[in-house]
Amino acid sequence: MRFQTENGVLIAQANGETLRIEPWGKDSLRVRATMIPEFSGKDWALTEVPEKTEAKAEQFEVDHLEIDGSMGKRTSASITNGKIRAVVNFAGVITFYKEDQEILREYHRCYDGTISKESRCLKTVNREWKGVIGGSEYLVAPIFHLNEFEREVYLPAGRWEDTRDGKVYEGGQTVLAAAPINSIPVFKKIA
Q1: Cα–Cα–Cα angle for 84, 89, 95, nearest 5°?
Q2: Is the pLDDT of residue 42 over 50?
Q3: With 0-12 CB in 10 A as exposed, 13-18 as middle and 19+ as buried, what is 23?
Q4: What is the pTM of this model?
Q5: Mapping DSSP to helix (H, G, I), strand (E, B) and coil, where does residue 170 land?
């Protein structure tokens, strides 16, 4: 990964992909990735103009266990905007933190698979996300497979509201969530 940090924006590039993470209002980040030479400049679905904030983007070295068992150093980068922080590791995997508590981590499928012991057989570069179970407020359950329109979702202890229809579920169980192509299952912890 090659990192650039300028004017409170984090840019990471590798394997033809450009990843851009920038502040987008208070305690919020906008993440975009493209395989084409540059971003279109369109805001797409983001129609509101966010308030200006001061974000801090920086690069840093982290210890890394090499495949031969020795310790090496790898460059990672982060961007912080208020209470939210995104860290991009040397392989391009993004993890989000709110007040230093991990809230969302990208599913590590194909970046440096032999070291991480994760599957690399699909050789895909698309980004896939997994919510952190037990996150403080929301549980996001997207579907990333063609022709699947529902999925099982485990709801940790507590009471959870489906933000799409308001239905409330008791935690500690697995529910079947409908997920048509235009609707991502999102559950909000209400108790």
Answers
A1: 35
A2: yes
A3: buried
A4: 0.60
A5: strand
